[in-house]
Each structure stands twice: as structure tokens, then as C-alpha cells.
Specification:
The complex is a heterodimer of chains A (432) and B (382). With 432 residues, chain A is mostly beta strands. Chain A is built from 1 helix and 30 strands. Chain A is rod-shaped and about 120 Å long. Chain B folds into 2 domains: 169 residues, 3-Layer(aba) Sandwich (D-Maltodextrin-Binding Protein, domain 2), CATH 3.40.190; 175 residues, 3-Layer(aba) Sandwich (D-Maltodextrin-Binding Protein, domain 2), CATH 3.40.190.10. Chain B contains 10 helices and 17 strands. In chain B, strands 1, 2, 5, 6, 10, 11, 12, 16 and 17 form a 9-stranded mixed β-sheet that branches. Chain B has a two-stranded antiparallel ribbon with strand order 3-4. A two-stranded parallel sheet of chain B has the order 7-13. Chain B is globular and about 65 Å long. The chains are: A mainly beta (432), B alpha/beta (382). At the A-B interface, helix 1 and strand 5 of A face strand 7 of B.
Chain lengths: 432, 382
């Protein structure tokens, strides 16, 4: 009877091996995604290695001839750590995964189950060096003839310490937490305050502020999610900034970059498409003296011939807010106009000298402590009219709220032989 | 003190018993004990079954192939024991021609001459290829040759035989013997180097294995550099040479069955008690060797009463008795010619009749329909 059993098992093994040989030729090298779970998760290299090992994925078709567990380091086979599992493995040894179902091998009920591990980690063919290594759960096409490059495996990252002869499952790296950075910018005079807000607030690091690609402030510490700084002496114009968050530990938090924030520094540029458009660039005063509003454009309308000149007029308004202390110096709001250039038709070029523009300033009657500048008549003389800086209004701090509503009746008296067309000029109001 | 004396006496008795046991085992090397008319020698493979045949055919003197290195004395002529098919046919060729055979036996300084009639037939397990027609190879049974390895080895229990069309790295017996596949993975997944073993050079099984089973040549095997006969010491069908985890050797399936049946507790169950142990006391030389399957076919079948060589197993071969062609064809028979014909030729010959007996099954050989056929002629072996 004993011999009878032996012969039966010979026949079974034979059939399986043949199917394995046939599959080798169509195989491709590949690590298959899956999870290996072992117990314990750390231990001595000199004792019993594993109590159990499970693989979440079974053997792919064509790789169901045999299974092993092997240690690899730097992609090199260092040695086998289990018996070769076969489809004929007794059920008491566990499930091999060679039927395509997940594998589970434990020392229950068979304490000596070599299919879990059959040798100490220190007893494998080639000693492991200190550092990371892999435990590979292999599915082979044939039980006695392994092609490690072609056969399929699932990998479990491990670490080994050759000095203490201990091993452990490698601690999986926690992905860095993503961050977001937002940016606001505001201008006060030539100072621009940029404030970056980084979330989550636990993210430690610094912020670099850039204008375009040029860093304008670096290494600004993030405190409670906020990094802010004042950029001094920013030149007038439209400024566009971005903020980059640089994490202290990139393993914990990722870096991030804000959307752009745009701020207008020093002047307001008015749209310039109106035929008689006067674009006014008005610098803000230092301290708390503001030119808080002014006319973006003034249309002078169509000039009419009268008295030998082409005459047109319009009203310019401006508001000055003076919140300085009483006793601070007098402010002056002055105006200066450029030459008018013909915009329609643009060719041939034609101009009207700025001298032909004059004005008659006034201040609102409720304004305390402010006075209007003197009237300036259009003139043909060089430096006449508003071609030279002329006073629109003056004032000093007062108790009345410090708001001066100034205005001026603009009067154009161009020479009667001026070419027809649409002209525009820029009147610059300066508050000093 | 008295107790001690008794103990000593007991020990002496045990030794005596052991000597007696050896005495009864002697028929294992059952050289003829008296003068025989038709003496023959040669193959290891058919040595035991022909001992059985000799027990049924009194004219036959069947000289064993073992032990190697010994001498035999036939009709008062002493010469080297032919150990294997090649040596057996060569000795027959020498005897038929009345020339010297083997090595000089001290105190003589020249090899002994074998007078005509010293040997009348030879055992061979391979059909040789010498040109000529002086010898007739008479098939009398079928055998199969599988691969054997120690039971403790993890060598695959089934392996492909292989052909010349295979890739050289394919795991086949042909590639293993040609040296292009040199290892396998054991049950621990560790690499084991294979040691492909061949029987000694006089062996018919060796010739058959290389040229017929593997389909290659002795020169190619030598060039491969892997196969070894361990310094020409390996006796065929002796599992005791398989000592390493990677050792394999060709093994006669019939011999494996015959050796298994060599004791009362042998392979065949009690329902076949008539053929167990086999009547002529084959020696069990398996030494833990077991047989593998080849190309998924198992070498042995069991029908409930008798273990037998699987008729579907390949590689398979015929085994032969070789006689002088002249003795079969001469119209003027001389000497033992007529006895040779009645002993070996045709299905009604005494040899073929013995092979048809149920007891023959103990030796594992497959009865064949063309037992006693005389259509295969070959030349002398020099």
C-alpha cells in the first residue's frame, strides 16, 4: 500500500511540471502588485524567521508550478528562506497561492512548517548587508527550475542590521502633506505689503516672494500659517507678485506657489482711448496725505472757432485727503500737461502745444484751510499755460476731516490754423 | 560472572547466524555450479532474468556480470568475468574464433585463449552496430530505461527526455547529459548541481542510453564534460552509486522491479506470492534509488497483483541473447547447434517458454511477440 501511494504521487507531479515547462516561453519579467503580510514584523536573524506569511495576490496563470520566499538585496538574490511550495502541498501547510487565490502560510497547526520559512535569515546562501532588502514572494513557472527575471513576485520592503543581526519590515514612508499658499498685496506710497497665507497652518517653512521670476524677499518665516513683509521703495507701476512656500522638511509638507497678486503702486493709469482723453498720473503723498481721487479723463468736446482761436473746455476734479497732524506743512497739488498729439488721424503727426491749455482752479466752499490756485490762461509762449507746473490747490491739516474737493475749469485755446483731428494729452497732478 | 559468560556465548551464536545468512544469499551471484552445455555471459540488465531462465532450462549456464574484477572458469578455461553487454559479446566473439579474451591472469603473462565452445551465447541489452553477420541478436523480452536518483534527492520526479531540436538550456535529460543544463532547484529553492552518471564502458545500458535514448554520441557526451562513470567504476542498475543530491543515472525498470522483489517483503503483494521472492535471489542493489517519470509517463504499472514495466514508457528497448549465426543456419549442424536452436530460436524455444511463465513477472521484463526472432545479424566484437 505504501508503494501504491508513492507511484500515484509521481504521476501527479509529472503532469504539473509539463504544464509549467510549456508556460515558460510566453512569460514576461514583472513584479506584480500585491501585499505581503508577515508576522512578526521584526526579529532576530538567528532564530525562526517568520510565524506566518500571506500574499494578497495568487499566482498568475503560467506561474503556478512552484512558490518560494527569497531575500533580495539591491535586486540580487541573496538566498531562499522557505521550502518550495507546490500545488501538491498538503492543506495543513497552508494555501500556496498556486491556484490563483491569495496565499496564507502559518505555523498553525504545523509548528515546523518550512513553507513559512525554513531557515534563519542569517543562514541564507549569501549574508545580507546592513540596509534595506526585499522579501519576495515568488510564483515560479516550474518548481525545480527558477528564472528570477521572468517568474512573478510580490515584494515587501525590509531592513537588515548586520551588526545586531536583526531585521524589520521597513516603515512605509508617509507621503508629504500637500500645502496651498495664497497671496495678498497692498501698496502704501512706495511700500508694498505682501502677505502669504499657507495652509495647513502646521506647515513649517519660509516664503519667498517673487516679482515675475525675481525674488524680492526670501526666507520670510511662516508663523501660524502667515508670512508677511513690507517691500520698501517699490517703483511706480503695476506690480505682480507670487509667493513660494518652501517647507522646512519636504518629507512632511510639500512646497506650493500662490496665484499672482497685482498691486498698483504710485499712480492710476486711466484708459486712453477717448479722443480728448487726458490721462492723469497722480503720485500718492507720503504719510497720510493722499490724492484719493481725481478725474480719470476729461473730455473737452469739439473745439469752436472764436476770437481767432479754437476753443474748448472741460472740468477736472480732484480730492485730497489730509489726515496729518495739525501743524504739518502745507501741501500743494500742482498740474502739468504734456503736448497734445493727434491720435485720429495718427498720420501725419500733428500736435498742439501744452501751453494752449489753461485752467481756472477752485475749491469747494465747505473746505477749511484750503485755497485754490491762481487762474492760468492759455498762452502761445514757451512754458506758458499748463506746460509749466501750476498750482491747483494748496492746504494744510485741519480739524474738518482734511478733505479738499478741488476742481479746475480747463480751457483750451489752440491756434486757429491747427490741423483738424482728435488730440489727447496727459495732465499730471502732483501732490507734494 | 556467570551472566557475562552467557552473554559472550550469545554473541558467538549471532556471528554464526550471520555467516549462515550470507551462505543462503550466495545464489544471488548464481554462477553455474556444475558443467553446463550452453555457457553465456554479458549484460547486467538481463543477468537475473536469465538466471531464472537457466533454472527452467538446465542446459544453460548463465554467468553473472558481477562482481566486477573477478574471474570465471568455464570448461576449465579461466578468464576475466565479462562485465556487461559489450564484454559478453566480445567474449563470445573470441570463443567462436578461438582467440584470446581479456587480460592475462597471473601467473600467465598472456590473455587466455577461449576455445570454440567455451561460450555459446551472450547477453546484451543493446543492439550493437558492428558490420557483418556472424552473430544473430535474438530478442527475448522488453525493458525500459528510466532515470534513477536517491529517494532523498529533490531531482524532479518527472523530466523531459529532450531531442536535438530543443534549446540547449531546456531542462531535459539530453541537455543534462550533454552538459548544457547543470543544475536544478531543490525543495528549499537552493541550486543543486547535477552529476549525470553513466555505467561503466562495457555496459549495454550505457550504449543504449547515449545513442538510442538520448540520441547523441559518446563523443558529444565526452565533449560536454559533465557525465561521469566515476573512473569507469559504476556498475549498471546499482543505486548505491547515487550518493549526492544531484546524482542521476539510467536504470533498467525491469532491474528495479526485480531487485524490489528480491525479498519476501518485496514489491509484489501477497496475492502474487508465487513470484515473491523471485526464485533466483536477485540482489537488491537499489540503495534507496527510485525511478522518475519521463515525459509525464510513469515507468511502472500496477494492476492490483503484479508490478510491471509500463508498456507505454519510453525510452524502451529489447534485450537480446546473441548466438553464432552459423549455428542457426548450417545445414550440417555440429557440436551444440541443434541445442542452441531449440533453446533460443522461435516462440516455442525453451527460453521463450520460460519467459512466458508467470514467475518471470518478478523480474519486470515485458513479454514480446517476436521472442526468438532471428532477423538481426551483426559482426563480431573485437
Amino acid at each position: 500500500m505504501k508503494m501504491n501511494k508513492k507511484i500515484a504521487s509521481l504521476a501527479v507531479a509529472g503532469a504539473l511540471i509539463l504544464s509549467g515547462l510549456g508556460a515558460v516561453q510566453s512569460a514576461q519579467a514583472e513584479e506584480i502588485p500585491g501585499i505581503i503580510t508577515i508576522t512578526p514584523t521584526s526579529g532576530s536573524a538567528n532564530g525562526v524567521f517568520l510565524q506566518s506569511i500571506a500574499a494578497s495576490v495568487g499566482a498568475p496563470v503560467g506561474f503556478r508550478g512552484g512558490g518560494t520566499t527569497a531575500a533580495f538585496q539591491n535586486g540580487v538574490l541573496m538566498g531562499q528562506v522557505s521550502l518550495t511550495r507546490t500545488p501538491a502541498m498538503p492543506a495543513t501547510a497552508g494555501t500556496s497561492g498556486l491556484d490563483g487565490n491569495p496565499a496564507l502560510l502559518t505555523r498553525v497547526p504545523t509548528v515546523t512548517n518550512g513553507n513559512v520559512s525554513n531557515r534563519a535569515l542569517s543562514a541564507i546562501a549569501n549574508p545580507l548587508a546592513t540596509g534595506p532588502f526585499e522579501l519576495r514572494f515568488y510564483y515560479h513557472a516550474v518548481s525545480f527550475d527558477f528564472d528570477y527575471a521572468v517568474d512573478k513576485w510580490i515584494s515587501l520592503p525590509m531592513t537588515f542590521n548586520a551588526v545586531t543581526q536583526t531585521w524589520a519590515v521597513a516603515t512605509p514612508a508617509v507621503p508629504a502633506t500637500g500645502t496651498t499658499t495664497s497671496l495678498t498685496a497692498s501698496a502704501t506710497g512706495s511700500d508694498v505689503t505682501v502677505t502669504a497665507t499657507v495652509t495647513p497652518t502646521a506647515a513649517a517653512g519660509t516664503v519667498t516672494f517673487l516679482e515675475g521670476v525675481t525674488p524680492v524677499a526670501t526666507g520670510i518665516a511662516v508663523v501660524a500659517g502667515v508670512a508677511s513683509t513690507v517691500l520698501a521703495g517699490v517703483l511706480d507701476g503695476t506690480r505682480t507678485y507670487t509667493a513660494q512656500f518652501v517647507p522646512t522638511d519636504p518629507a512632511l509638507f510639500t512646497g506650493s506657489t500662490s496665484l499672482t497678486a497685482t498691486v498698483q503702486v504710485g499712480s492710476i493709469t486711466a484708459p486712453g482711448s477717448s479722443p480728448s482723453n487726458i490721462t492723469v498720473i497722480v503720485p500718492t503723498g507720503a504719510g497720510n496725505l493722499f490724492l484719493t481721487s481725481s478725474s480719470a479723463s476729461v473730455a473737452l468736446g469739439t473745439a469752436t472757432l472764436g476770437g481767432g482761436t479754437l476753443n474748448a473746455s472741460g472740468t477736472l476734479s480732484a480730492v485730497v485727503t489730509d489726515q496729518r497732524q495739525i501743524g504739518a506743512g502745507t501741501w500743494n497739488l500742482t498740474g502739468l500737461v504734456s503736448n497734445f498729439t493727434r491720435t485720429v488721424p495718427a498720420s501725419p503727426a500733428a500736435t498742439i502745444a501744452g501751453t494752449y491749455l489753461g485752467w481756472t482752479p477752485s475749491v469747494a466752499t465747505n473746505t477749511i484751510g484750503s485755497t485754490a490756485g491762481g487762474a492760468v490762461a492759455p498762452s502761445a509762449a514757451t512754458g506758458g499755460g499748463l506746460a509749466s507746473s501750476r498750482n491747483l490747490a494748496s492746504g494744510s491739516p485741519d480739524l474738518g476731516g482734511g478733505v479738499t474737493n478741488a476742481s479746475a475749469l480747463l480751457a483750451l485755446a489752440a491756434p486757429g490754423n491747427t490741423a483738424a483731428g482728435t488730440y489727447s494729452a496727459t495732465l499730471t497732478l502732483t501732490l507734494i | 560472572m556467570q551472566k557475562n559468560s552467557k552473554l559472550r556465548l550469545g554473541v558467538v551464536a549471532a556471528f554464526a547466524a550471520a555467516a549462515l545468512a550470507l551462505g543462503t544469499a550466495a545464489p544471488a551471484y548464481a554462477d553455474p555450479t556444475g558443467p553446463k552445455t550452453l555457457n553465456g555471459a554479458g549484460s547486467d540488465t538481463t543477468q537475473d532474468v536469465m538466471n531464472f531462465v537457466a533454472s527452467q532450462v538446465p542446459a544453460i549456464g548463465n554467468w553473472n556480470a558481477v562482481p566486477a574484477g573477478s574471474n570465471i572458469t568455464v570448461n576449465s578455461v579461466t578468464f576475466n568475468r565479462p562485465i556487461g553487454s559489450t564484454a559478453g559479446v566480445r567474449a563470445l566473439s573470441s570463443s567462436l574464433r578461438g582467440i584470446a579474451f581479456g587480460a592475462a591472469i597471473s601467473p600467465a603473462t598472456t590473455a587466455p585463449l577461449l576455445p570454440a565452445g567455451t561460450l555459446e551465447w551472450a547477453r546484451t541489452s543493446a543492439l550493437r552496430t558492428e558490420g557483418g553477420s556472424e552473430l544473430t541478436y535474438i530478442p527475448f523480452a522488453g525493458d525500459a530505461t528510466s532515470i534513477a536518483f536517491n529517494a532523498s534527492s529533490d531531482f524532479p520526479r518527472d523530466v523531459a527526455l529532450g531531442t536535438s531540436a530543443d534549446a540547449t538550456n531546456l531542462f531535459t535529460l539530453r541537455n543534462i547529459y550533454l552538459g548544457t543544463r547543470q543544475n536544478f532547484r531543490d525543495s528549499s529553492g537552493d541550486l543543486i548541481t547535477i552529476r549525470p552518471i553513466l555505467p561503466q564502458t562495457q555496459s549495454g545500458t550505457r550504449l543504449y542510453w547515449i545513442t538510442e535514448a538520448l540520441g547523441t554520441t559518446a563523443a558529444a557526451i565526452t565533449a560536454g564534460g559533465r557525465a561521469t562513470d566515476l573512473g569507469n567504476t559504476v556498475q549498471e542498475h546499482d543505486g548505491r552509486f547515487l550518493t549526492g543530491p544531484g546524482d542521476i543515472a539510467p536504470y533498467s525498470v525491469a532491474q528495479w522491479i526485480a531487485q524490489s522483489n528480491s525479498t519476501a517483503e518485496g514489491l509484489n503483494p501477497t496475492t502474487a506470492a508465487a513470484i515473491r521472492p523471485n526464485p533466483t535471489g536477485t540482489v537488491d542493489r537499489r540503495g534507496g534509488a527510485i525511478l522518475g517519470s519521463i515525459d509525464t509517463v510513469k515507468p511502472i504499472t500496477f494492476q492490483g497483483t503484479v508490478y510491471a514495466t509500463n508498456a507505454d514508457f519510453l525510452p524502451s528497448r529489447l534485450v537480446y541473447n546473441v548466438v553464432e549465426t552459423r549455428a542457426l543456419t548450417s545445414s550440417t549442424p555440429i557440436r551444440n547447434d541443434e541445442l542452441i536452436r531449440s533453446t533460443f530460436v522461435g516462440t516455442a524455444s525453451t527460453v521463450c517458454a520460460a519467459m512466458a511463465l508467470p514467475a518471470q513477472r518478478a523480474f519486470g521484463f515485458t513479454p514480446i511477440a517476436n521472442c526468438g526472432a532471428t532477423n538481426l545479424q551483426r559482426g563480431f566484437v573485437n
